[in-house]
Every structure is written in C-alpha cells, then in structure tokens.
Please model this.
Amino acid sequence: MDLAWLGAGIGAGIVLIGAGLGIGKLAASAMEAMGRQPEAAGTIRTNMIIAAALIEGLGFFGLVICILLAIKA
Model:
C-alpha cells in the first residue's frame, strides 16, 4: 500500500512537471508571436488561455488518476 502512494506521488510529479513545461512553452511562443505581430495580440492571448486551460485540465486529470490508482491498490 505504501509503495502505491509512492508511485502515485512520482506519477503525479511527472504529470505536473510535464504540464508546467507545456504551459511554459505555450506562453513563451505566445509572447514571441505577440512581439512579432502586436495587432494580433488579443487573438493570440485568447488562444493561449484556452490552450493553457486544456493543458491544466490534463494535468489535473493525470493527478486524479494517480490518486485513484493508489487508493484502489
């Protein structure tokens, strides 16, 4: 049982690191695009927020799956 929680913790950490890296890359690309084309900043920002929300949702989904698998074990 304790190893299940350890595995869930490691899995959740990997999921959240991946989500953080994804959002960071997304934001960096969006900032660069806004710097190159300022007149499209509103559209780029909207698309960035939607994509970041989807990435966060996947991160939370992975976190919940890790916890549920640990509870079931």
In short: Helices lie at 2-36, 41-72. The domain at 2-72 is CATH 1.20.20.10 (F1FO ATP Synthase). The two ends are 6 Å apart (CA to CA). The chain has one domain: 2-72.
